[in-house]
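User: structure tokens for SAM-dependent methyltransferase, please.
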Amino acid sequence: MADVEPLLRTESGDAIGGDAAARRPVFELFEGFALTSVLASLERAGLLARLEGGSVPADPSEGRDGLPLATLRYLAQRGVVEEVNGMFTLSQRGREICKDKGYLVWLQGGYGHVLASLGDFSTGARRYGDDVIRDGRWVADGSALIGRDDVSPHATEVLTGIDFSHVVDLGCGNARFLIAAANRFGVTGVGVDLAPEACEDAGHAIAAAGLEDKIKVRCGDAGDLDAIPELAEADLAVAFFLLHEIFEHGREALMAYLRKLGSIMPRGAYMLVAEVQPASGAPDEKWRPEFTLLHAIMRQQLLTAEGWHDAFVEAGWSRHEVRDLGLPGAVLLLYQNTAPAGAEGGE
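Assistant: Done. Predicted tokens:
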């Protein structure tokens, strides 16, 4: 039987729907957006954990309107799961994606609706902070998942080189780092976070870990150091992806914050900071361009490692260690308080 000539071809002669579609970049974006949305939504609903825990049956009667099976078949077509003998399991690609699912939760769950409003922000029809804000719970959950592999192991390694017994986590999210520190080092800690949803999740996580006698979390502004009396007894303060929010109010506000922190905490105490550096402009750069844009939407600027160093030294802190993190462009900074007790003001 003779081959049937396609009815439609592009100007270059390719059959529509064939190789021509594969070369059109819009479909790569289309697929990425849909797959990110699906996976983040499944994680937020607790359904992705089923696949991570083992095989899921291809049951057309499960769920509403047959959506679970339709979703599994979609994920199979996109190479995230494999179907064998009526059971769906994660593929190698799927396991690698799930290992880094925090990035999807952070972006789609925490900021998807923020990015969708970019046009209105640009025209002035709406304003971030007044009309639209990020989802604090999913930012915290996504950050914790990201931090599990790309921050915490590096932080733990750095902390093994210093002595500390009481930690204050500024912007603690769901307290995952405090819980890990208490389990690993036997320390006590206090966490402060502005998002009520994150604080609620932190309380549940602390109770589940049986650490209520060691860790306390309260809802409050980590920028208001006067409202955190525990700092006076802390030999370690932690601020993961927080200081750029202080820098939002200008360099002088950042300097005042660091100086005040140094005046409250004991001389010789440490501060452990994680921050993402601004996008460099390289066309193949990962993560940093999107992180930079989102923080521009929130009217926040980012600093390079050198910029953070200059601010810390000027505020009376000395560098103990700086290293790269697993997140592209992110750095971990450990500084020690060298300011005399009560020395808050600048020159």
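User: Anything notable?

Assistant: The radius of gyration is 24 Å.
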